[in-house]
Amino acid sequence: MDQNIKQAIVRGETSLGIEFGSTRIKAVLIDYNFETIGSSSYEWENQLIDGYWTYDLNEVINGLQETYRQLKQEVENNYGITLRKIGSIGCSAMMQGYIALDQAGGLLVPFRTWRNTTTGTAASELTEKFQFKIPQRWSIAHLYQAILNDEEHVASIDYITTLSGYIHWALTGSKALGLGDASGMFPIDASTQQYNEEMVKKFDVLISDKGYQWNLKDILPKVYTAGKQAGYLNEAGASLLDPSGSLLAGIPLCPPEGDAGTGMVATNSVKKCAGNISVGTSIFAMFVLDKDLSTVYPEIDIVATPDGSPVGMVLANNCSSDINAWLGLFREFSEAMGMRLHTDQLFSVLFNKAMEADADGGGLLSYGYYSGENITGFAKGRPLFVRSPESRFNLANFMRVHLFTAFAALRLGMDILTQKEQVTIDQILAHGGLFKTPLVGQKICAAALNVPVSVMPTAGEGGAWGMAVLASYMVNKEQQEGLADYLANKVFDDAKAQEVYPDSADVNGFALFMERYTEGLAIEQAAVDHFVEN
């Protein structure tokens, strides 16, 4: 088997996926059978600068190069081969946000990420104008808010894109974006699988009095569906990705995608009525719709799969950040006591402790609002942990409540789909770091959503693996073979998912927690107001 893999590496019969997540940049190299040959990661973190959550684009390039260097080194160590040829490459990143570039390719303002909740006025006005939900994180909301704010940089815009589109452009020179990520820049017309022309015209009319030298379509990336080729790695891109000079130019790149799209691919959830949930810094659930929703909901976004099917999406801005902060505190304590624990061991011990807790978390309450939370209407983030004298305050309940609260805001949005729109959810496929600890994340998720939750063996690899699969699909698909068929018949044909059903006691316990959560939102708002005012 090793010999076959070596031959595949030498001949370039591999696919590389690189994903820029909120806390990790990850690269995964797969063979023709979608098995992981090598993987690597680079830790990074966003910063709140001048009121905006951002990442330095110099760090983007540093992280890209370091992640590839580690992957290249792992392949060389394991197989004795220096990576020179790769069959196909794909880049993905955290969804949407706002990167604005001038004609020379220079950054006009620091990258504004999905996490910002500074575009409320713009998002609301555009939602009303289009009669289509425009979330605050979408690129068009960031652009219009900058226009409303009379920001000087807007007049100099030559190109706006997402982080995945920026990386793709840096490697290929192509201003391209995959359909899934593009559907979070601006609404997509499902019939044409391109930006909605009527809404584009409405936007241009809306800002016509500003006298800008651009119109909207001129500054947006070109939209590509999954399976299309969206450029080649050019000489500058090859040197950027691999400064050592080993990597050859000319490698085809598939359309860049957002982490929502790669999550759908990684969980085989692109066909009609499929559902998946992704957990990380944010948490979102996506359901491929078989009919239009009856109305516009502030809590439900309409996006698209990488191959163009409409998707109902519930996204909460906050999930794991506060949990990670608390585990960092426990790590400090253990090190102060002379114990050095591996990260996986720390998570495993504390997450499994939650399984010993009272079903409702012992009357404790937590809001992990590290940033603003769109579903519950919070513009600013202030993590809050609350208990009463009657609460049963112990480690097990503490961990259970923090896991519960990671799913709480999402549950509020999910109730709209299931109760108001009668969307049937038979099963959810899950992925993300929280599910790396066996069974715990699944049990909590199943309790929170009251549906069976399945995890694929590839769940730990996540979106970078999904991006590699999209890159493979571009070069290895049969003529007229759709993405859903490619995934079902080739990628996941013998995959065995681990399924966990909701436990009635856990479901009832989560319901009791949600009663406290919704009743206590006023407490959280008071805390936010206090910190903002002082």
Describe this structure in words.
The chain has 534 residues and is α/β, with parallel strands linked by helices. Helix content is 40%, strand content 17%. It has helices spanning 2-11, 57-79, 120-130, 139-148, 163-172, 179-182, 197-206, 216-219, 235-241, 259-266, 321-336, 343-353, 395-420, 440-449, 462-476, 483-491, 504-519, 521-533; strands spanning 15-20, 24-30, 36-43, 47-49, 52-54, 88-93, 99-101, 159-161, 176-178, 188-189, 194-195, 222-224, 257-258, 275-279, 283-288, 301-304, 310-316, 365-367, 384-386, 428-432, 453-455, 498-500. A seven-stranded mixed β-sheet has the order 16-17-15-14-20-21-22, sandwiched between helices. Helix 13 (395-420) crosses helix 17 and helix 14 packs across helix 17 (504-519). The radius of gyration is 23 Å and the shape is globular. The relative contact order is 0.12. The model has no long low-confidence stretch (mean pLDDT 93).
